[in-house]
């Protein structure tokens, strides 16, 4: 995946329209990194210099980051190992279903998703 910079300012000003988001600035980079790893399973994200698609990917990553945050906050995360990055969800089918819904909603019409998504 091409690396995009998704800053806390983007999350605050664009994704949340200047309203306080769910993720604190201190926790933001960790959730964004995890969100990019989740998104990697759905797309190649080869979009060259298409600014419109980049914006959609950034919005998608912000929404996935919030799902990860809410999942960990609500007990959706059963266990987590930071050094080896391993997360186990208490209901992985529900998490996957919601993750897929977000990706399709945000990126379904971009042409960057893997076939079958």
Structural account:
By secondary structure, this protein is mainly alpha-helical. It has one domain. Helices cover 54% and strands 8% of the residues. It has 4 helices and 2 strands; from the N terminus they run αααββα. The chain has a two-stranded antiparallel sheet with strand order 1-2. Helix 1 packs across helix 3 and helix 2 packs across helix 3. It is globular, with a radius of gyration of 14 Å. The model has no long low-confidence stretch (mean pLDDT 83).
DSSP helix fraction: 40-55%
Q: Total helix count? A: 4
Q: Any idea what the shape is?
A: globular
Biggest sheet statistics? 2 strands, antiparallel
Report, as a whole number of angstroms, the end-to-end distance: 16 Å
Poorly predicted sequence stretches spanning 5 or more consecutive residues: none
What is the H/E string? HHHEEH
Structural class: mainly alpha
Number of strands: 2
Strand order in the sheet with the most strands: 1-2
As a percent range, the share of strand residues is: 5-15%
Radius of gyration over all CA atoms, rounded? 14 Å
Mean pLDDT: 83
Question: Into how many domains do the coordinates divide?
Answer: 1
